[in-house]
Every structure is written in C-alpha cells, then in structure tokens.
Design goal:
- It is a single chain.
- The termini are far apart.
- The chain is extended, with a radius of gyration of 15 Å.
- It has one domain.
- It has about 70 residues and is mostly helical.
- It has a two-stranded parallel sheet.
- The protein is built from 5 helices and 2 strands, in the order βααααβα.
C-alpha cells in the first residue's frame, strides 16, 4: 500500500479517459450507482477506500496552491 504523494502518469490518465470500454459504458448507461462497488467487488472497494484516504494527488495540491 502506498502512503503520501501519488506521482501522475499522463499516459495512464489519457488512456483512462479515452478507453473504448469507458466510452461504451457511459454512452449505453451501464454504470452501477455510487456505492455499489462494495457489492460487485468488496476486496477492490476496500483497497480503493484505504488507498484514496492515505495518498494525495499532485493535482489536488496544485489546485489548493492556486486557489
């Protein structure tokens, strides 16, 4: 598990935003409501919850600086 600052990857960020699977899921409306991750994959949902609470994004730090 990582603690502290996450380093951004522009390649992964661009790939996530332009993936065909994401485009198809959003255009067809096949998304599960928020909070359903605990039902679909509890292990991943628990990991993501801990990860998001123990790490900080570079972009959020920059946003706070220029506010």
């Amino acid at each position: 598990m990582k603690f502290g600052l996450r380093k951004p990857s522009l390649r992964k960020s661009l790939a996530a935003r332009t993936s065909p699977a994401r485009f198809l899921r959003h255009s067809l409306g096949l998304k599960a409501p928020r909070g359903y991750g605990w039902l679909t994959d509890p292990k991943r949902a628990a990991y993501n919850r801990v990860y998001n609470r123990t790490t900080v994004s570079v972009w959020s730090l920059l946003a706070k600086l220029f506010r």
